[in-house]
Structure formats: C-alpha cells, structure tokens
Amino acid sequence: MLTLYGVPGWGSAISEIMLAMTREPYDFINVEGFDKPGPQQELLIALNPLCQVPTLLLDEGGVMTESAAIALMLLDKHPQFAPRPGTPARDRFWRLLVWLVANVYPTFTLADYPERWVDSQPEVLKASAQRQRKMLYQWLEQEMGEGPYAFGEEITLLDAYWPVLRCWGPGREWFAANAPKLNAMADAVCGHVELTAVLKANKLL
User: Fold this and answer.
1) Do residues 30 and 203 make contact, with C-beta atoms less than 8 angstroms apart?
2) Which range is least confidently modeled, 25-34, 109-118, 192-201?
3) Could you please report the per-residue DSSP string of 24-36?
4) Angle, alpha carbons 76-78-83 (nearest 5°)
5) Alpha-carbon gap, residue 13 to 161, rounded angstroms
6) Is a pLDDT exceeding 90 seen at residue 130?
7) Alpha-carbon distance 33 to 101, whole Å?
8) FRET partner for 56 with CA separation of 20 to 30 A, picked from 15, 72, 75, 194?
C-alpha cells in the first residue's frame, strides 16, 4: 500500500485528494513540525532529503515527490482523469499542471519563509511574492472556461488543486471576489461525496 507523508492542509492535501479521486488505497503519516528541527524532520529527511511534503512511499519501496509527478504517476493507472491523448485539451492539461507548480508554488516558498532568502527586510519579499501570486491567479482565472471543472464536464487531477489553493493565501474571500471561476471549481470538487473524508481531514470543508 502507498504511504503518504504530509501535514493536513499543506501541499500533501493536493496529492491526498488525487489519491481519493482515483480510489488508490494509502496510509497517511502526519509529519507536522517537519519544517523545524526534531523527530518529524528527521523522519522525513530519511525519505526525502529536500524535506518536503508530499512525500509518497511506493509499494516497491521507492519514493515519489512533487504533486505534479504524483499526478502523472496516477494517470498511468487512471487515464480517465485527464483529457484524451492527442487532443488540444490534453496539451493544455500538461501546460497548466506544470505551470501551477513552476509558477505559483515558488510564491509560497518565498512568502512563507522569506528569511531564508534575504538577510534584511523579509517583509518586502513576502509582500512581493503575495502580489505575484494574485497576478498569477488572475491570469489563470482568465484561462478557465465556464466549468464546472477546468476541462468542462469531466473532473481531472488538475481540479484537485482548487480546494487547497483557495484556502491558502490570499484566502477564500479573495477567490470569491477575484477568481469566481476557480472558486466555483473548488466548490464543485468539494461537492464530491467520495472526497468528503479527505477534505474534512485537511480542513478544506
């Protein structure tokens, strides 16, 4: 069985939603506090030297990290959770999946731990990263159709991101006012009964 190392409400929540969507059985190990020295950090570093969540221990003992990589791995077994190969929608799916982790994720790295990156005025870096994130979300909002999901009527693994991202900064109220399409897609994902348990466990409902 797969073993997911993570923290409720953190980035591992995205991969947990993906696992629940595809009905892959897994065990969850809470490593809350891993970002500070201590036993949880030591436990995670032993598996993932970068000390990041999600960290997914595979059945054969290998380790998979990065939410986008986990999505690609799951699609090998569950191809119905992405647009059909050879279609423009498939190309767009790849683009947006990688775009999210390449562009939006770094704004959290900078804003959550600015003191790691600058010796003075960390609040300036934090504010700049937060402004950049809002701009990125507004671009993404313009890329979305009318839903109910990112690719129309069929839910994809990309949609696993929306319930989590809207609960992080700038928060639910900002999404409702400034990114109504993304907000509505998050609501649509949260309406799936089979995801209720994992959403509640990650404080997304």
Assistant:
1) no
2) 109-118
3) --EEEEE-TTTTS
4) 90
5) 9
6) yes
7) 23
8) 194
Inter-residue contact 190 to 162 (CB < 8 Å) = no
pLDDT at 147: 84
Q: How far apart are CA 199 and CA 36, in angstroms?
A: 26
SS3 content of the chain, % helix, strand, coil (to 5): 60, 10, 35
Amino acid at 122: P
Report how far residue 51's alpha carbon sits from residue 46's, in angstroms, rounded to the nearest whole number: 9
- Is 103 in contact with 136 (CB distance < 8 Å)? yes
Closest CA to 107 of 85, 125, 130, 89: 130
Residue recorded with tokens 């994720």: 105
Helices vs. strands in the chain: H and E counts, helices first: 10, 4
Residue pointed to by tokens 């005025």: 121
Output b/e per residue, 36-52; b: 16+ Cβ within 10 A. Answer: eeeebeeebeebbeebb
Distance CA 17, CA 9 (A): 11
- pTM to 2 decimals? 0.95
**pLDDT tens for each residue of 61-111:** 899 999 999 999 999 999 999 999 999 999 999 999 999 999 999 999 999
